[in-house]
Design a protein that fits this description.
This protein has about 160 residues and is of the alpha+beta class. About 30% of the residues lie in helices and about 30% in strands. The protein contains 3 helices and 4 strands. It has a 4-stranded antiparallel sheet with strand order 2-3-1-4, with helices on one face.
Length: about 160
């Protein structure tokens, strides 16, 4: 069984009893076609984004149900026959798709961490070389390895020599 969501707009000119009867009739279609009504959302009167049939408001109703593909077809047929329905839309809900989770903040790719370690080791060697020559090394701030794109060789420009 597939999951569907059908939204439809009812004209605000209908009385409350007529509106409820219309919603119940449309919900009966799902039951008659051996579907399972999951939820009915009645949002009430809302302002429309643009006028429809010279109306600026409509009553919003959403059906969430499970069933065969013939249920939305029958609902749409009935919506077209009913003058009180201004607009309708049926969506087939997709099954939950496994999404890739983001890496934890502390984890980095192996290649990236190896590159940073190599860069840090070369920086230490430069500082030790200056100490051996008797020079006072300039005060250094910790540097982060520069970003490397796929088109480069994978070695930062400072390291190439």
């Amino acid at each position: 069984m597939r999951q569907y969501e059908t939204a439809f707009l009812i004209t605000p000119k209908l009385e409350e009893e007529e509106r409820e009867k219309l919603i119940e009739d449309m919900a009966e279609v799902v039951k008659k076609k051996k579907g399972k009504m999951v939820n009915i959302e009645k949002w009430g009167k809302r302002k429309l984004a643009y006028p429809i049939d010279k109306l600026n408001e409509a009553v919003y109703v959403f059906f969430h149900y499970q069933g065969n593909p013939d249920i939305p077809h029958e609902l749409q047929r009935r919506f077209r026959q009913t003058e009180a329905i201004l607009r309708y839309l049926t969506l087939k809900k997709e099954a939950q798709i496994q999404t890739r989770k983001k890496a934890k903040p502390g984890r980095k790719s192996k290649a990236r961490s190896e590159e940073k370690a190599k860069f840090a080791k070369e920086q230490e060697m430069d500082v030790e070389g200056e100490k051996e020559n008797g020079e006072n090394p300039p005060e250094q701030t910790p540097e982060v390895a520069p970003e490397v794109t796929g088109s480069e060789s994978g070695i930062p420009d400072e390291v190439k020599e």
